[in-house]
Amino acid sequence: MLLATVNPVHAAGSRFAHSDGNARYLHHIVLYDIDNRKIGEESTRPYSTRNTCGRCHDYETIGHGWHFNAFAREINAGRPSEPWVWSDSRTGTQLPLSYRGGVGTFDPDQLDLSPFVMTRHFGGRLPGGGLADPANRTGDDSNTDAKPDPRWQLTGALEIDCMICHAVSGAYDFESRRAQITDENFAWAPTAGLRLGTVDGRVSRIREGSDPDDEKVQAKLPTVTYDSRRFNADGTVFMDLVRMPTNNACYQCHSQRQLGSGGIEQRWVHDQDVHITAGMSCVDCHRNGIDHHIVRGYPNESHPSAVNVATLSCQGCHLGVEVEPQHSMIGDHSEVQPDVTLAALVTDELSRHLQPGRLGSPYPAHQGLPPIHFEKLSCTACHSGPIPGREAIGLMTSLSHGLGEKGHRTGHELPSIQGPIYAPATTLPHPKNESSETQSGTTADHAVTQDTPSHQPVTPQRALWPAYWGTIVDGEVKPLPPEEIYTATRRALRVRKDFVDEVVLKDPDKPIFDEKVFAALDAIEKEMDIDTPVYVSTGQVFIRGDEEGVLTTASVSNTEAIGMVRWPIAHNVRPAGWSLGATGCLECHADDGLIFESTVVAKGPAQVESEPITMASLQGIDELSRSRWNQLFAGRKQFKILTASSLGVIVLAILFCIGLQTRRLTGSRLT
Amino acid sequence: MIRQLERLAMAAVVISALMLFVTSTPSIRGEELHGLWLMAHMGSSGLFVVALPVQAILFVWLQVIMPAITMTERSLLMALYVFGGLSIGTMFACMLPVPDTVSMRKLIWVHGWIGMVVVAWLIPIVVTRLKTRPGIVKATKSS
Description:
heterodimer, A: alpha+beta, six-stranded antiparallel beta sheet, 24 helices, 27% helix, B: mainly alpha, 6 helices, 86% helix, elongated
């Protein structure tokens, strides 16, 4: 009743029926194809989730949920998340893209990367929907792409694939889905993923610019041969699904690996997140209603449903939530309908959610830890991410490195991501408060500038330095469309597979790097008609020198376009005994305290000698101040002894004074 | 000599208490004490933790050799030792790996208020001391 009042999508009057029970609802259903025709054993068209699942579930509402809005900019994005990194090993490119802003990321629209191109490149890591489905183009979250790419008519839409998350573990074939998307068979991906049949044909084989209405072209479109064993006697198909997705589904896009000196570290030497080890599921905390706006669980998160989701954050679950009476359960007041009185939202049951111990979480005593730490540090600073060492280590993620796909990874693949970086957290702007963009297309103006340490708590983060081919205009560097770059530099670079191996590392003295990059910049100038082409990598801007085949470096005014790009680490959470500071104050408050003293070095395709950056400098802490603090803490043990002695002396003095006073009083009475 | 040393120690107590009061300004404004303010507060606390027991020892000594110390002065100082001891004790407890966050917040709250009481209590002590200083007494008599 509460939710129905606050959020219209939960209204009792919804046109969609619901089971309202906790048991699984068996889905023996009729499949419908992308033309909304019933699918039988003899059908050849792929099944459509919009036409099949959308018959009984509110597809439009679901489509506005988290994950499906990955390419949307008109949303309150909250905390920065991993950017879409356009990596091309042949051109040494690792370009962070985002529709939501964030320091150092680039807007795909500014680089002529249409939603179609983005879907083709990143579709294997998208659950579909949003701008990956041209039918949503008229929605309020429409981006650019005023003239939708005509190729959509051949590839079809990458619809929300419900079964990616809701299929029982092991029933969905992600590898097969990814293969279909690589072949530009977007509309066929859900059918292949569920292995409902075999898909023959590739849209990618159809020449660019072909007329989608041409019958000959249409004849080349892929066809499906359905597996007759999947059909019941009544023509229905059993969709083996669960309401709450399994961890396996989340891992498809949210896996991570650490790199050591020998490459990718083996899985068995590392532990899982402590919550998973304890038997929890990802969706125990990362919950959602029918709106599919999944709770992300970061501090101060605002949820469109207006439910206070703080109880599902680290602090909310373990320590409880302190809510002032007038705030009750409401998170973001601006989202709440005016006729809802806040007092009406507090029920006994929901109030209990504010108390610590949700889901049986242990209450952390934090014995001896001064409360100021909770102002200065996020929970994750001490409890999450890789155990810090003297230097940040290499990291790989599913989104950036395609973990989960079959391959021969060494750990040196682009992009070069490092962590943990202990720096102040940043928040993305709410679209309502958005300012204008910089000329270079970066969105630095929109967010807290990372170079200026804020009052935000220190949070462990991942980081990368962008690498791309670009141009300098009015002193600002700006990337060039990465797809065109490959065509323009192909002959000059002559890279078969890997720019780093074949150009950068081939000769340690760098002449090949200089020569080839020089030639590539020449080619860009000629073929793309660019005045001042540059190559950005490892925090440097390489530009052609006066001498043939020799590069020099240039400085630019928009340094955020070449500097470190960061986003927070949330998992894996380590056990309490492995948290920072578990062994005492001196673990951090000493000259070798890793949260301040560990370093990160700019890393990218170009091998550049860079100065190590300390975490203290990222936090805006000067060396002298830290040194003084450390000196204070170095004498802490002695100070404790001094204080105890002082207390002892004071107590003795008090007792002596009382005794003396008593004796004199007694003496005076006697006399 | 002992009296002079005791006065010197009392001066150190007063100065350190004032420094502690000034450096706790952010918490008086309702903010968390951190950064340079906290560092200065911690530095000043060192002086207080040393000066107060030294003053107490000297005062006890004075009482033995100078029985003429008034009941008022003795009472004022005994109360100062109680408040000062509580102020030091609450912070000492926070330095031990014992109190949890809730307990520590309470201890800090108590520490702040007791600290205020110490500063306030020093006012009558200082006034009493100034009044009973031989120089001032003489000057008052001659006038």
